[in-house]
Amino acid sequence: MTSPLRDLLDHRLIVVTGKGGTGKTAVSCLLAEAARRAGKRVLIAETSATESIVTRFESAPKPVGYAGRELRPGLFAVHVDPHEALADYVRLQTGLGVVTDRILHSETFQQLLEAAPGWRELIVLGKVWHLEQKQDARGRPLYDLIVVDAPATGHGLTFLDVPRVVQQAVRAGPLARHASWVEAMVHDRERTLLLPVTLPEELPVLETCELIARARGEVDIAVDRVVVNRMPSRLASRALACLDRLPPSLSPESLPPVPAMRAMLEHESRREAIAVAWRRSVSARCGLPVVDLPSLPRGFEPDGDWAAFADVILRPAVWPGEPGAAAATATPGGADASGVDAA
Q1: Does the pTM exceed 0.90?
Q2: Residue 158 covered by a domain
Q3: 115: number of Cβ within 10 Å
Q4: How many angstroms from the chain centroid is the CA of residue 313?
Q5: Which domain range does residue 30 map to?
Q6: Fewer CB atoms near the end CB (10 Å): N or C, the chain?
Q7: Strand ranges inside 151-198, DSSP E
């Protein structure tokens, strides 16, 4: 009997990553919205070169920028630009605002930065640490939960491992001290969680397995579940069973002939079975339970209804193959529908 996992909302920092195209940004938005609805004060920290999270919340989006702003009551977003974060850090260390800005924005210094490996990751993580440390007027954490929309898969691990590398290279001084603080945050299993996102397909699953193996071996960050995004329901299988009860000669109006419908449903049913197999595979290979997310009819557009499905991300993770374990999807209005049997 496996012990139940901690609730996602019990963590202070959740780093969401996955192969490009698996929907890690969408998962970050779902998690932040679910936490907001649960009464948490939430911050999404976006680390990509261009902003995209705001487009999920606003039909006429305005940049949130490095200063950040509130997108919905209790939900804030910030775009962690490494150049701005570096300038911020140097100002705090030197107290020379104008001089610092002139140096950091000079063409020569910018070229030097582009050639220096790892500085972006360290500075961005340092900014995340600074945000996690912020307190309100009463001395309480300013944010109950910080969701980091991290770089994709391999870059995401480099992002998390840089503080350790810096500590090995720089043994003393402010940089080493600050890197140690950031590294402690990454390794704190009570505070920080890595949340991998995959699709029930071969390449994303294989890359996710490699990601988790490296996260355990190289970074030593907590990871306790895998999000399987766009998990199909078993609607095709159910419809096929219903179709079997109809006479083959039936010619319903405004619908294809029964044999044609059967062929389409059989094709979709095979796709469902393949998805279930890869869902079971990622769980077995990684030794982790899974959380299933459905494909939403209207996607993650700001005028869509994706926010109504936010609580799906908080469902308990399940072990495919255990009695009663099944892929689950959500239907409009919040009602649940059982997915493909994974036993």
Answers
A1: no
A2: yes
A3: 7
A4: 10
A5: 8-224
A6: N
A7: 192-198
